[in-house]
Specification:
The complex is a heterodimer of chains A (291) and B (272). By secondary structure, chain A is mainly α. Chain A has a single domain, classed as MetI-like fold. Chain A is built from eleven helices and no strands. Chain B has one domain: Rossmann fold (3-Layer(aba) Sandwich). Chain B contains ten helices and ten strands.
């Protein structure tokens, strides 16, 4: 995942490459396996499901095994089916919110980072207000203004994320711009667009990518929380959050209803965090050597 | 013909405080001027003003005329960013004090050096020709194994080597005037004299004008032929190195010469 620096290397000198770069971080490998499993489940759910998501013909609260590998819920729906569709919903929520928050946040952050005085002050104040605004309240407003759907939840989570990402980007840009190498580039007559693409973006992007990966995990959690509260995708779309909420009452009689979505949720979020950790080690050349 | 002509330069902060007031000096083609003074005397600000790179909120007044090779003198004070960008690099460029922060930590040195080379020789410079130009530029500043250094990141080479790379980047612009802002202060003494000697020959070979900024009168007198002494933003004394060192007039200059002598005599006492 070191595309930027590798591309540069190819341009200048393509011979011998530091061997340490080849070594993979164990966190990255573990994280990729965990995330990969969930992605696989989600992809399979698109082409094949054991039952239809709204098929209530099964025995209610059946124990795992036989025709229903993970059992059924209180309405007789197959849990494995719900878990699989839930994986796809969780990934869509995470990707959608991260894409929205990432694009808007980085753009706003770049603008604020380069701005001086009043524009910077205005943007910073706006971001602070947005960060202080509870995501849950924002989500409820979205649901009230639109309807309870995955789109509303993603929009709310993405907007809340925008503020966090923008504030981080702003600080990173300001820090890079204060560096001597920016002044050095300017003294040799390098134009602003070249400075942004050549120095600013490469220097802020490792931190940004790691942060976006963390934000992805938080977005998945946020979607599960919103669904738990009934603010996410409406039935029959099975979100892990709503599965947890529905299985709440029967947690002792049919524990798989709670355990299965819980385990997958933890796998995805922990996996994404490990990927973020591994990315940080891989993307930073000063860390690469010491590992 | 003068490469740099500074007349009545005053640098003022937003609050209206003058950090540099009414400083005038000029540097002829191929000649060298040392700017000496303690930290906070306005040396570096003067250099930044010459490049049109004052920090936001500071304004320069007076006149700064910079002349690129084969071009009429251009006024820096009040020039547009576009005009300034055309001058930077061609007319003048800067080598900074801290070589670690003056190099992009995430960029391979070869790629960083390629930037001024391509700015100078055109974007068409790429591939094997670019690699050769990069290695030649590194070779010119006496760096061993230019191929290896071109592929290294700044943290993988030593401080002295970094300053040589920074020097190579500045020279790649082939400017009429090289501004060296305390280029050896961050280096240890033996490396310092090597880099100074290198700077000396490279500037002489290219017939470049040099504005050398330092707090160290001994270092300045080793490299330049004229000296301007700054104190609290005003020029207190100027003249040839021999005059300033031999017959300092202003009390502050006398202090500077005295402290340089003091160090020297301390060394001699030990030798004896």
């Amino acid at each position: 995942m070191s595309g930027a620096s590798e591309a540069r290397e190819v341009r200048v000198g393509a011979a011998g490459r530091a061997p340490s770069r080849r070594r993979r971080s164990p966190a990255l490998v573990t994280g990729c396996v965990l995330v990969g499993f969930v992605v696989l489940v989600a992809l399979v759910s698109l082409v094949w499901l054991p039952y239809a998501p709204d098929d209530t013909t099964g025995t209610r609260l059946a124990a795992p095994g036989g025709a229903h590998p993970l059992g059924t819920d209180k309405l007789g729906r197959d849990l494995l089916t719900q878990l699989m569709t839930g994986a796809w919903i969780a990934l869509r929520a995470g990707l959608g919110a991260t894409a929205l928050g990432g694009v808007l946040g980085v753009c706003a952050g770049l603008a604020a980072g380069f701005a001086t005085r009043w524009l910077d002050d205005t943007l910073s104040t706006l971001l602070d207000v947005l960060i202080a605004f509870p995501t849950l309240l924002l989500a409820m407003l979205m649901v009230a203004a639109r309807s309870a759907s995955l789109g509303s939840a993603v929009l709310a989570i993405g907007l809340a994320m925008t503020a966090v990402v923008a504030r981080l980007t702003r600080v990173l840009v300001k820090r890079v711009l204060a560096q001597d190498y920016i002044t050095a580039a300017r003294t040799s007559g390098t134009s602003w667009p070249r400075i942004v693409t050549g120095h600013v973006l490469p220097n802020i992007w490792p931190t940004l990518v790691v942060n976006l990966a963390l934000q992805f995990g938080l977005a998945v959690m946020a979607e599960a929380s919103l669904s738990f509260l009934g603010l996410g995708a409406p039935p029959p779309n099975a979100s892990w959050g709503r599965m947890l909420q529905e299985a709440q009452a029967t947690v002792f009689t049919a524990p798989t209803g709670v355990i299965a979505p819980g385990v997958l949720l933890v796998m995805l979020v922990v996996g994404v965090n490990l990927v973020a950790d591994g990315l940080r080690d891989t993307l930073d050349p000063t860390r690469r050597r010491t590992r | 013909m003068n490469v740099l002509d500074v007349q009545g330069l005053t640098i003022r902060t937003e609050e209206g405080r003058d950090l540099v007031s009414d400083v005038s000096f000029s540097i002829g083609a191929g000649s060298r001027l040392g700017l000496v003074g303690e930290s906070g005397s306005g040396k570096s600000l003067t250099a930044l003003a010459v490049m049109g790179l004052l920090p936001p909120g500071m304004t320069a007044s007076g006149s700064i005329a910079l002349t690129a090779h084969g071009a009429p003198p251009a006024e820096i004070v009040g020039a547009t960013e576009r005009a300034l960008n055309g001058l930077r690099g061609r007319a003048a460029t800067v080598v900074f004090q801290e070589p670690l922060t003056a190099l992009d930590p995430l960029m391979r040195l070869g790629a960083q050096l390629a930037e001024p080379l391509r700015a100078r020789h055109g974007r068409g410079l790429r591939g094997a020709a670019l690699r050769r130009a990069v290695e030649e530029a590194l070779d010119r500043v006496r760096l061993p194994e230019p191929g290896r250094i071109a592929r290294a990141h700044p943290h993988e080479i030593s401080g002295g080597q970094r300053q040589r790379v920074a020097l190579a980047m500045a020279l790649a612009c082939e400017p009429a005037l090289l501004i060296a802002d305390e280029p050896t202060t961050a280096l240890d003494v033996t490396v310092q004299s090597e880099v100074l000697a290198l700077l000396d020959t490279l500037v002489a070979d290219r017939d470049m004008a040099l504005l050398f900024i330092s707090h160290d009168l001994a270092v300045v007198s080793a490299v330049t032929d004229h000296v301007l002494v700054l104190k609290d933003g005003t020029a207190v004394e100027s003249g040839s190195v021999a005059d300033i060192v031999g017959r300092p007039v202003h009390p502050y200059t006398r202090d500077l010469v005295g402290s340089a002598r003091h160090l020297e005599s301390a060394l001699e006492r030990i030798v004896r």
